[in-house]
Amino acid sequence: MKKILLIEDNESLVLVLSEFLQIQGFDVLVAADGCIGVKLAKEHKPDLILCDITMPNMNGYEVLQSLGQEESTAEIPFFFLGSQIEQYDSKKVPVMFKGYLLKPIDLYDLLAVINSQLNS
């Protein structure tokens, strides 16, 4: 069973996404902030990470940089969840960064992106 780490501080979105992904056959780990997300990623080595950008304690960009510098997590496909696409310096983007998914998230678009990434 493929494992997805969802790093998101919006509880209602977490409930919707985690339930949907579990129904689709994924094992879902959830972190309410970036610090917990980094810890879970290092401990559990998920197959894919979905990460909010604006969070307390450690934002999504800091999560991406932290995991991109760790050999054990630097190859995990990583997607931002955000309400708008923000410019990100392409020279600083770790190889694990795959793109943005805009909120509100269409569940079947999300599933297509995940399946495309995990089956490639």
Amino- and carboxy-terminal Cα gap? 16 Å
**Uncertain regions spanning at least 5 consecutive residues:** none
Proportion of beta-strand residues: 15-25%
Question: Percent range for helical residues?
Answer: 25-40%
Mean pLDDT: 91
Class derived from helix and strand content? alpha/beta
Commentary on this structure:
This protein has 120 residues and is α/β, with parallel strands linked by helices. It has a domain at 1-22 and 49-86. It is 38% helix and 22% strand. The protein has four helices and five strands. It has helices spanning 11-23, 34-44, 60-69, 107-118, and strands at residues 3-7, 27-31, 48-52, 78-82, 97-102. A five-stranded parallel sheet has the order 2-1-3-4-5, with helices on both faces. Helix 3 links the parallel strand 3 and strand 4. The longest helix has 13 residues, at 11-23. The two termini are 16 Å apart.
Quick overview of this protein structure:
This protein is α/β, with parallel strands linked by helices and 120 residues long. Helix content is 38%, strand content 22%.
Write the layout of secondary structure elements.
Elements: E1 3-7, H1 11-23, E2 27-31, H2 34-44, E3 48-52, H3 60-69, E4 78-82, E5 97-102, H4 107-118
Keywords summarizing the entry:
single chain, five-stranded parallel sheet, 4 helices, alpha/beta, 120 residues
